[in-house]
Amino acid sequence: MSDRTRPASHAGSWYEDDPTVLSSELEQNLEEVPSSIHDSSLPIPGARVVIAPHAGYSYSGPCAAWAYKCLDLSGIKRVFVLGPSHTYYLSGCAVTTCSKYETPFGDLVVDTETTAAIKAAGSFRDIPLKNDISEHSLEMHLPYLYKRMQETFPSPSDFPTIVPLLVGDNDSAAEKAVGRLLAPHLASAENAFVVSSDFCHWGRRFDYAVYSPAADLAGLRTLPRGARGAPEGRPIHETIKMVDQLAMDAIETGSHDAFYGNIAKTKNTVCGRHPIGVTMAAMEEVREGLRFRFVQYQRSGLVDEPSDSSVSYGAAYAVV
Is the four-CA dihedral 44, 81, 269, 232 of positive or negative sign? Predict the structure, then answer.
């Protein structure tokens, strides 16, 4: 593990790099979340696992705030951050080689001992430094994490460490194997988990343009490449909401098999499906009945025409 700091490479583009401006934006997003959810004040006691999106904050920041306001960091010593790889093909999983991750507020320290132990136990690879720097799925969570740590702990010296992991293209059996490896960490009250994922990426540029005239699974098909104008039937954005709702319903069952099967059926472009999958597999290992509850769903826009595109965002928590 090298003594080097991964720069906040997306600050100034995907989110504000001025700490004062950024702090004000995150605080406003958090303040707009209700003070209680599911009959509980926030943060929800024991909600040590969240799913949150990772797009630019102007798109997904308000949705992410719902997850982070639910997140209970009390007594936490380390935070596992699991994200997908957008910059290179990854089979299996990979760990950072950096010892710190920069944010506009200050650095977060990597738990190098835990990272090394997980790497050895799972035969994980190192994330190539250039890909670590260019990857956004982990970075986009760190300012929110820093803000919530500020609210929870007396000073940065008391902040939890972080364990950044990229989860690659694993099949069902491989996801369950990683879940077994992570289960003891998830079971510990000293650890929190942040699972990084956007939901449906719809549009030709994402190679996913499904449509159902009745917005049901039975009629789901891919629009022809040359299709123009709004199709007859219900709007395209209702189909997008349908496939996302089916994915979220599957996640809320707590069954890894149900979620894996849902993605296989709809081919929904949930970019963090593998981080979600290994976390669900770990939750099944820890205790029967552990499951996520979704608290927010948003989209970058409402698609009407085949030439349009959108990305969906969801926020969820699990009490462990």
Answer: positive
